[in-house]
Structures are given as C-alpha cells and as structure tokens.
Amino acid sequence: LGLALYAGSLCVVSSATFLYHDYCVIGAGPAGLQAAYFLQQAGRDYIVFERSHAPGSFFALYPRHRKLISINKQYTGKSNSEFNLRHDWNSLLSHDRRLLFRRYSRDFFPNADTMVRYLEDFASLLKLQVQYNTAIIHVTLEKNEQAWNGHYFLLTDQDRKSYKCSSLLVAAGTWVPNVVNFPGSEYVEGYETVSVNPDDFTGQTVLILGRGNSAFETAENILGVTNFIHMVSRSRVRLSWATHYVGDLRAINNGLLDTYQLKSLDGLLEGDLEDLAIVKDKKGKLHITLRFYLENRNISAGIDSITLPQDELDNFATRAPYDRVIRCLGWKFDFSIYNRSLRMMPGKGNIKKYPQIKPSYESRGTRGLFVLGTASHSVDFRKSAGGFIHGFRYTTRAVHRLLENRYHDVPWPSTVYPITQLTNSIIKRVNEASGLYQMFSVLADIILLRENATAFEYLEEYPIGVLAELEMQTGRKARNGLFVIIMEYGKNFSGADKDVFYYNRAVGEAQHAWQSNFLHPVIYYYKRLPTECEMRLHHPDWPLPRPDAIHHIVEDFLTDWTAPNAHILPLRRFLENCLSTDLRNFFAESCFLFAFTHQKLPPSCQQGYVRMQGLVGSEELRRHAVQAGLLQDYTHTDFSDDRPHDGSQELLMRDHGIPVRPLRHLVNAKDE
C-alpha cells in the first residue's frame, strides 16, 4: 500500500511539472525567428514552438503558385546596407551578412521554396532555440504574484506536455482560411486545396470568390486555358500603386484586369458573398442565384423548381453556368487555442481577422502577451507594411526593446549628440533608415532635447501609437521638448479611387513641401509629450496630434534628401526657429569675431572654437565662403603673406583696427 501511494504521488507531481522559460514564442515563421534572434542576442531564456518539422511551414504551401510578391532588389547603386534594406523585402535582421536574401535568389519576385530554405538557414546558422513538431493546443493563465505580470502563461502541446513562461510572444500568423457559408457553399473549392495545374481547367468556365492577391494569382495561372473567369467580391478592386499598400493587388498578378477592360470575356463583379447561393444541375454545372430566391424552397428538389435571377432579368450578369467555383478569401487568426482567461478577442470591422492589440503590440486583454508578425497587422492595416516581412522585422525589434526596458531595466537604445549635429543626424536617418521607410506613419525616430537645447538624445524607430507612454516604455526622459521624425504620403494621394498618375502629381519646390504626395519625411515638434487623451482624440487622418510646429521635407524623385537648398536649408531654419538658436557651423575667425560683437555665441562656436576646436580658414576656404555669402569680403586683408596661420586671430583684429598688445603686456595688465 505504501509503495502504491508513493507511486501515485510521483504521478501527480509528474503531471504537474512544467518546463519553464522566461519567454515562449509560438510559431517559427519569419516573425518568430526574428523575435528569437533578438532574445538570443540579449542572452534571454526563451523557447520557440513550431508545429511543423521545419521553420516557415506556411511558405511550404503558400502561395500555391509559388511566386512571392515581395521584391528582392539586387542592385540599388549604393553600398549602404541599411539603405539597401529599403528595397529588400525578404531578409530578416541579423548581424550575419550571409543571411541576406539576395544571396539565396536573384529573382526579383523569388520562389516560395527559396524562402523556406532561407528560414531554415536563419534558424540553424544562428543556432536559435526552436522546438519542432510541437503544436501548442491550449494556452491559459496561472495567477502568481511573483510572476512578472502577476501571472504565468501555461502552454500544452499535442502530447500533453506542459510549459510555463512569464511572457508569451504569439507569432503564429494568420493561417485559418476565411470561409463564407451560404446555400451551396459545399460546391466551392478552397484556395488551399484547388489544383494548380492549368491543364485541369482547360475549356472550363470559372468563378472566383475574392479579390485579393490570392484570387488574382489563381486567375493568372489559368487565364490562358479557361473559357472565361468571373471574379466576385463585396468591394471594388484595390490596386497597390493607388493605395500605396503592398497587401492590395500587385501588378504582377493583374492580368485579369487587362482581359476585363479590353473585353476579352473575363470580368469583375461586386456583391455581398453572403447573399449568394449556388445550385448544381444534373450535368454538374453550377448556377449562381441569390439567397432570397431559395427561401421556403427545397434545394434538393432540383434546379427546375428554383427561381434563378435570369428568370426575371434575362441579362443577369452571372446567368451562364460555371464548371468550378473557387474560394480565395485569405486567412484569419486561430483563436481556438486560447483559454477565455486570456481574453484574446478578434478585432472589429475589417480587422476582425486579427486579435485586438494595443499600438505597443501587447494584447488588450492580457498583460505580457504580445502579438508579432502578420497577426499584429491590425495596428496598421491598409496603412503600412506591418503585416509583411519588410515591415514586421522592425516592429518585432521594437517589441523586443519594450520588453528589455520593462522586464530587464535596459533602456531603449539611444545616442547623445551635441545640438550642432541635429540637422546632420536627421538628414542621415531620412536618407538611409529602412525602418522609417518601410513602416511609414507607424515607426518614428524620436529626438529628446536636453536642457537649454545644448544637446539631444536620438531614439530610433519607436512606435508612435504609444508616444504618450514614451518615458515609461523607453526609460528615457522627455522634459525639454522633442522632435518626431516619420515618413508620410500626401493626405489625399492614396486610395482605391485615386489617379496617382495625373499630370503635375509631384512637388519640387521647398515652399510647397507640405503639398508633397509621394513618401517624404515629416518632422513634428512638441514642447512637451502629447497626453494619452490627445493621442486618442487626434484626427484620424493624422498619425499624431497637432504639434507646436511641423515641417515637411519636399518629396524627391530619387528619395535622396541631400539637396543643400531644397532639403537641408529649410530643415535647418525650421529647427532653428523651434530652438531659437543658430545651428550653422562657423570658421574659427567668425567665432572669434562673434566673441567681441555678440553676447551669446552660436552653439558651434561654444562647442567648437571655445574648446579650441573648429576649422581655421585658408585662402581657398575663405574665397569660397565669401562667394557663398557666408563671410564678409575683407579685401584689404592679405592672406598670402608668410605670417603663420596660428596668428590668424591677431591678423583679424589688426584688420579691424583692434590694437593687439603682446602677451607680456596682458600679463602685466593682469598683475596690475
């Protein structure tokens, strides 16, 4: 009996054993691997759970026709690696130069199999802690006051093994197909299982439900072998070049638009899919009707007893029967594995396929639960690139920095510069930063001013949705005002109904910079941090509340904002007006003259000349400065004589009629 009780107690203990990690990551797709990389670089205790035998299992199946729509630009004419990431939409962030996607494929639109191989190498070469063949089937909470967030996350896999963690990072993506149920929907084939062999569609008439890239990708594959293709969706087609949203229809897939508008039988229709019904006749043909025609009727009685729209309207658009109907409606997040205690709720409206999260990517229902990758796209849906690799690689890094500050007291990385470097720092970032460029209107560089504006602290790629919480989220102080640098499109330039190719669509003069349409830098100045109320109530078309001052750097055809007159000079004057200071750089001679003629020296003189730093003028520099209007033309001064340059201050004083006494006279005067 004693042995039996002892064995039973061991079983109880064993069943209650949890494998603990500080961080648990669900999913080893691109976002999960990116999170793992940052956690590993920081030396944190973490584990990644992947249900498949290899990372990136989504790309092993999708897209079905294997061509990615994320660009892989090999050449940009520049060697700056940060700039080149602006045009590399597939690489994850790492220190290993071998893990750039251009080393895996030269195709502008790569094959999805290449992405699978890339992700496998990313995980193996960086030795990331991924546990494969582990499907998490249930997640719940355990209250504990000693835990980081007042609770632990308890995870159970398919083998009933249990895991415990302090913070949960969900990077499982959106992989559950969207399905619309209507009478006859059992005759519909799903994008996830439909044949990809064009020969299977030869001479057939096809109806496609949906209007995203998966729908057009499917149509493109069979366009040359079908009788005709019709496409039905509740919304009009959205072209990515008009909306500036990469998730809308891309040019690589839009062949059906040509055949539709050039009247080659194919066509697009708008209608609510839930109002449709499909009836199958004796020959296996599928007829489209409307749900209300089937009310109080028995579909099994046969098509002859059912009223079809063409019976009342003989030119009804979809009166021709179809051989196949294919559903291409995208995917949604899998909410089924999360216990109700986590309060993982779907969003509302057009973001209901994503979980509800804050602009910090933390769940609205549970502290310590963060959503990464495609599933976090509700923050910037149809606005920016947060649902795609070239966007969420930066938002994942931002989440990691938030975690480092919250749980490990590691402040957000920053660099302190003297105020004289303010203009240069902004110009450098807007010309090369990839995170600002890809996550426009979502991530921003923050410049925190020091007291008396003598220096500033530069923070990169902070989520502007939590700007009011900056001090708490970053561990940095914003007591003396701040600048916020983001990238924006023109307010009225993006939309499904916009003509983005109209004449005079671009602005070229600095005084009209606020009317810029294409992506361009915008600098917001605040004398204090905006409050949470101001963030919540700001105009929906603006990314931020009304600032104390705002400056647009005029758009540039080459996205090269380095023109001295069009870009740099207006920016510098804006900064000077905000700070009430002179941000120009001066030669030593000018600083010496200012010391005698001004009560306050410009910052460049205070931080340069006064500290025995700065540039001493030469004849060539002086002539250039005079021609540029930066210095007065002291024509009676001869700079070509043999007097040494270290006497240039005495020379300048003599030229202005200021008597110069030898050093011994100054010493005697001081003694007297």
Automatic annotation (TrEMBL):
Pfam families: Pyr_redox_3
InterPro entries, per the entry: Auxin_biosynth/cation_transpt (IPR050982), FAD/NAD-bd_sf (IPR036188)
GO BP term (any one): ERAD pathway
GO CC, alphabetical: endoplasmic reticulum lumen
SUPFAM superfamilies listed in its UniProt record: FAD/NAD(P)-binding domain
Signal peptide: 1-16
Any one Gene Ontology molecular-function term assigned to this protein's record: flavin adenine dinucleotide binding
Keyword set, alphabetical order: Endoplasmic reticulum, FAD, Flavoprotein, Glycoprotein, Oxidoreductase, Signal
Entry cofactors: FAD
Assembly information from the UniProt record: Interacts with SEL1L. May interact with OS9 and DNAJC10. Interacts with TXNDC16.
Similarity comment: Belongs to the FOXRED2 family.
PANTHER family listed in its UniProt record: FAD-DEPENDENT OXIDOREDUCTASE DOMAIN-CONTAINING PROTEIN 2, FLAVIN-BINDING MONOOXYGENASE-LIKE PROTEIN (AFU_ORTHOLOGUE AFUA_4G09220)
Function: Probable flavoprotein which may function in endoplasmic reticulum associated degradation (ERAD). May bind non-native proteins in the endoplasmic reticulum and target them to the ubiquitination machinery for subsequent degradation.
Protein name per the record: FAD-dependent oxidoreductase domain-containing protein 2
Organism: Hylia prasina (green hylia)
Source lineage: Eukaryota, Metazoa, Chordata, Craniata, Vertebrata
